[in-house]
Write a structure and sequence with these properties.
The chain is an all-alpha fold. The protein is globular, with a radius of gyration of 22 Å. Helix 3 packs across helix 4. It has one domain.
Length: 182
């Protein structure tokens, strides 16, 4: 039964990641479900769980995350998801959770930056002339919009955010793996 709780947690993490990628938001029902599932797992765990220290750890993570939210460094859903997963990590696995989340976040930032730069690469600037060549040869027409100005690109970059819920979910999967090893 405990393994089923971990499987449900994994399902919530995948769902949250997909929602965060699409909407850049983590819904309250998801973060609440992570915490509620922890309470259920404590009740059915085959071994004793130090839930009191887990609440202290989660409280500290939430307090630090709230400070980050107040300064505009983190999203509210990210803070709540990290606090909920900190319950699962507890004292024994909090370092693993935070380390895995940080590493996944760094990798996510590199991937997103690479994709953003690739979308602005000089090769793509040649597409309008390539589409004109294709149209002249009678191979069909391709419409390509003009490359945005540097002002538009700066505004576009400022509005992009990382779906950090994906990195938090990676940290959660590291915790799930560690809990399965017990």
């Amino acid at each position: 039964m405990y393994a089923l709780c971990l499987a449900c947690l994994a399902g919530l993490l995948v769902t949250g990641s997909l929602i965060d990628i699409e909407c850049r938001r983590l819904p309250n029902w998801l973060t609440s479900a992570v915490a509620a599932l922890y309470a259920l797992s404590v009740a059915i765990s085959p071994s004793p769980v130090d839930w009191m220290s887990a609440f202290v750890v989660a409280g500290l993570v939430f307090a630090l995350g709230f400070a980050g939210f107040a300064f505009g460094l983190m999203g509210g859903g990210d803070v709540k998801l990290m606090a909920g997963l900190s319950l699962w990590a507890g004292v024994d696995h909090i370092v693993l959770f935070l380390t895995a989340t940080s590493l996944a976040g760094g990798l996510l930032a590199i991937v997103m930056l690479s994709l953003h730069r690739w979308a602005r690469s000089p090769l793509l600037l040649m597409l309008p002339s390539l589409s004109g060549l294709i149209a002249k040869r009678g191979l069909g027409s391709v419409t390509v919009t003009d490359c945005p100005s540097s002002t538009d690109m700066a505004e576009d970059s400022a509005n992009h955010s990382l779906p950090y819920g994906v990195a938090i979910a990676a940290g959660g999967f590291a915790v799930i793996y560690a809990l399965l090893q017990l």
